[in-house]
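Objective 1.3, modelling of assemblies. Example input:
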Amino acid sequence: MPKVNSDSEEKIKAAAKKIFLQKGFDGATFKNISEEAKVNTALLNYYFGTKEKLFLEVFDESFFLFIRLIYQIMEQDIPLEVKIYSMVDKYTDLILENPMMPIFITSEIQRNPEKLIKHFGIFKQPTDTFLARQLASEAAKGTIREIDALQFEMALLGLILFPFMGRPIMNLRGVDTDLAFKAFVLERKKIIPEMMMAYLKTGTKQQ
Amino acid sequence: MPKVNSDSEEKIKAAAKKIFLQKGFDGATFKNISEEAKVNTALLNYYFGTKEKLFLEVFDESFFLFIRLIYQIMEQDIPLEVKIYSMVDKYTDLILENPMMPIFITSEIQRNPEKLIKHFGIFKQPTDTFLARQLASEAAKGTIREIDALQFEMALLGLILFPFMGRPIMNLRGVDTDLAFKAFVLERKKIIPEMMMAYLKTGTKQQ
DNA sequence: GTCTATAGAGCGATAGAC
DNA sequence: GTCTATCGCTCTATAGAC
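Predicted structure (tokens):
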């Protein structure tokens, strides 16, 4: 590693990520970012050309990761209960490292759906997923009740993600430190799978 | 009603609400709003002074309503199961009329917490709520399992709200019309209470 | 009450010195 | 590779005619 400390390009990317996450694409300015990175404003254009290119480059990896990890786990050929625990565990940990991402992703997509869906290559998923077949198969065996796969996914994701999106509400309800919030979220690693399983087992003999 | 059609102030408010919801405070411009309202840009300043005042005035009623309705229902002295059904039913209907509000509120608060919390008077709630006492009392009687009140609230809200926040994801999963989305959400009026009750009844004799 | 015209500031982006 | 200086544009907001 010859260049020791002042790798400007990396400093800009780190600063841009922080500022974009906080203020969104529209709210962030080159001035904000260059001050955060402690470099000259003109350097942003030198390295990345335009604001949009900087934005896309910074979130190119991480943005897609958050959406793809869902399907990577959902589509694994593992028992349903294991899958639910794995999903809650892995996704909670991922978001804990990037707690502002859920709101950021949803709001940026809502404000510019074409751009993001096109660039990040999020594609139309088939309705006939492995998870859908798994849920149908288990229901046919009578080990769980019937449930639509998308309903299942949205329930699971909502349970995992919502505390991060409603963090300001939680602040007003006494969960007002990062430590308390983390404890709250980690407790959900137990609650969420139990909730999903309790629902799925309703009306079956294993109930 | 003397002034028939051209009530500019109301046209501006309606246009501002639409544009702000779509683009956020930072992304929205007076040009966007005035074109949407089909009035001159200078009229926005004439009626509302500044962009921030326009924003606050437009969302003064509805913004707070969305947060307060939660507690209005949660704090009612009605049986727990009735409360859950009521919460899911009323909140789903409210959001269906304003499907962009959940993302809008969360992202605007994340980007400007002091301003919004101060202006809309969202205050620090006590941890000793009616709901908390109700949950503790039922658990003591053995009719439900023990659960922290905030965990209960976040689970319920996540289940209700997440489909609206993840609407773009749902579009890619085949739920790509307003009609299909509405049907999907209405189905949750049944699923969500059953899920909550299934969890609460786990380990009790009524299970 | 609504318009045109424009002020004044901040924005993203570029040119050119070093 | 990094800086200063500045361009051209768009933004919010105001002044003043009607």
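Chain B has a mean pLDDT of 92.
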